[in-house]
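Exercise (ungraded).
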Amino acid sequence: MKKKQGGLLEEAKKSVLLMPSVLLLLVFFVVPILLTVYYSFTNLALSGENARQLKFIGLSNYFTMFKDRTVRISIRNTLVFLLGSLVGQQVLGFIIALNMRNKNRVFRGIVGPIFLAGWIMPEVVVALCCSTFFGDSGTLNQIFSFLHLPQVEFLFAVPMLTVILANVWHGTAFSMMNFQSALDGVPVDIEEAARVDGAGPFQTMIRIILPCIKNTIATNTMLNTLSTLGVFGLIYMMTGGGPGTKTLTLPIFMYRQAFISQQLGYGTAISMILLVIGIVLSVFYTRIIRND
Amino acid sequence: MYWKFRKTIPYLVLTLLAVIFALPLLWILLASFDVNASQAVKIPSQWTMENYKTILINQANQRAFGNGLIISLGQSVLVVLIAGLAAYPLSRYELRYKNMFLYTILFMTSLPITAVMVPVYKMFLSVGLYDKTGGLVLFLTATSMPYGIWLMKNFMDNVPVELEEAAWVDGASAFDSLIKIITPLMFPGICVVFIFTFSGSWGNFFVPYILLQTLDKFPASVTLYQFFGQHGMVIYGQLAAYSAVYAVPSIVLYVLSQNYMSKGFNMAGAAKG
Amino acid sequence: MALALQSADTAPDIVCEDTFQLPSDVAAGYLTNLSGYLKDYKEWNDGTFYGALVDGVTYEDGSVYGIPYSTDTRGLWYNKDVFTAAGLDTNWQPKTWQDVLDTCKIIKEKCPDVVPFWCNSGVATGEGTSMQTYEMLLYGTGEQLLDNNKWIVKSDNILKSLNFINTIYKDGYGPSLSKVLNGEAGNIASREYLPKGKLAISLDGYWMTGNYKETGAAPWPEYKDRLGIAAMPTSEGQAPGSITMSGGWALSIPNLSDQKDAAMDFIKHCMSYDVYLDTIIAQGNIATRTDIAKDASYSSQPFMETCTGFLSGAFYRPRNSQYTTVTTHIQTMVESVVSGTSPEDAMAQYKSDVTNSVGAENVTEK
């Protein structure tokens, strides 16, 4: 039994405990979002003449953005990074989760934590592990030389692939766990019945398992998309967005514009792209949960 | 024969994947005990604690770990307190705006914080919070509030109201029953929120990197980056030892929280559909 | 630094800035106009400071915003042992860029384990890449960054400069990218590679020799004899034959300082003959006072005479408040070429970046 709904005064009294959160969220969450929108229409800069007076310049930053080659490059890079990470993390996560089902307990006990470790590690450690693993004289190149394969400067020759693999290493466990709990929910008897009816493993997969976990795939994709879009540290630490612009994603381009070139207004306009994508996906995500 | 072979395939696949996944981490482990460590995984010719000693007696490193602890503890405690308070009316009362509020919160949990960092930085500069640990902690707390409130509310919903009703009859305030009745019952939930927040905060690099400037105030995540950002002349053994020490709280918290976490994960999972 | 200058709480009373940052910070209103303080500063008015450096701290409006604290010049440092091993003349002075490339080729053939040529090439080495590599090349073609106060964003000479860099890396004369594209590249070259004979030629500044002194980071007692310095030639050897960029640091007073008079007195103290003589020698930099340049304890330092000599024809970076932004685009352009982007594409990228940053009305093509 819950307390009954009262008048406005009553309602306000009940909400007192909410106030600290609301205040904090308003000041440090809502205001920054509004500022993002506002600054993206200004010439805000840290240095140079523009630092002296903040001017409203309308859509100017946005027009510039449309003409900016680097914006196009970083959008493309962001999409490649996103797609690569999503496919890698989810396919691997699913394969692992599927194969782990009904396996020997001891085996699971040994293998499971290894996959989890990459996920538990703080971002900086992930960047470090992967930088050395893919380094000039790193483990992978040692293996290559053992197999008589040519040496590769991974971080410079295939930088995008390298940061994607690093992110996959880091994020696979999250998908793995989601898929594990989803697979646990697949009714065994239906699967069994299908097998008795002569369905092969492939058919069972398509007809039974995938439909059962399609919601998990959807939410997992959405959550991974949102977190992958915001990835800054991993790429920044491994390649700095380079060499040149080869791993320049939107967050890194935003950082470079704002803090290296000191053009905060323009940097903010770039982060608006991220914010808008984030908002659209978040609305979707909220809808899905609401309908559940 | 064929069946036997088919049965071993999953084991082979998993073992292969596990070995690949283990290699990058194995490097940290082995290199940290090797004064002559290089970039590649190798067994130390001589096992030594020298790297750890060097790292740990360095005062700048101690300060960095201390800073990280202050920031992460501060943030976690604040999140638990403030989200806990907020969860009470959301869980116990009928409020007109409740659904709207909850969906707004849910919506906020998934926004990429990266996108607002530039304005936050400018805002901090303008109001004098830039390069202040307190300001950083407040901002971090705010970013954790959405999922903090969401989880806390879910946990609180699981605590039966009947227990409280007796207390209400005795004239206890909402605050009293929150402290005396609910808190002990939802302690596992509180731990989950605390651990989630602490781990996230301890590993956070971007926010302190942007909002702090003074070397002495940087948490371990930022100093570790600076340490290896200067590739080339790096002493790999010490770098590995530093990362190992830095990763310990994340691992310990994870292991400690296994029980709570699965609970938290199901909750979050339930929330995620 | 720009951050600290924005607030009265954090503003220091004296700042020491790289002179390229000066115009931008003056435009932002961060720095004090020093002209009023200079009327009774004797050394300022009697020509003690190098004229070119005085120009370097004078803003568009004709006012002075900083006192030159140190300056520098750049050239090609080479390890004579490597040259001997490769059968080259240890008294080296290339006449053209092609001479440099030919020398690299011989070194690569004769000493395959040695890196022939090193220059700052990445974003991580920041201004060092813009000024010390790209601008040394570009100004050596006879072109500059600006033409009539408009940024040149597309020209044959930009392409020629990028092609030189491209050849260095494409033909394998440069170091591995993991070494040269990180922030410590300059130190790896000067402290490790060059003294150990793992590097033949390094395009670097005079201060590099500070490493080799007894008190330096990588003492090298024989550096005076084992190291050579050659002027960087112009592209085809055209007049003036060689080229150097010069920069340096200046002492300024933030606008928000509340102790401006005391700050100015302190700056004068730092710049007084005896105090300055000691600090400039300790820094291993080139002095901004002509009288110090003649002091025996200063001028007797190895290579000092040659490097000070470079000053006479030195070029300086544009005094333009947009330079701080443009320089970051230069770094990206150079790093792109180094990591395999074609010079044409890199220049197109530069054009787009600079045009967006400074506005279409401030750029031009040649």
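Further reading is listed at the end of the chapter. For now, observe: Residues 264-273 of chain B have pLDDT under 50 and may be disordered. Chain B touches chain C through ten residues (CB under 8 Å).
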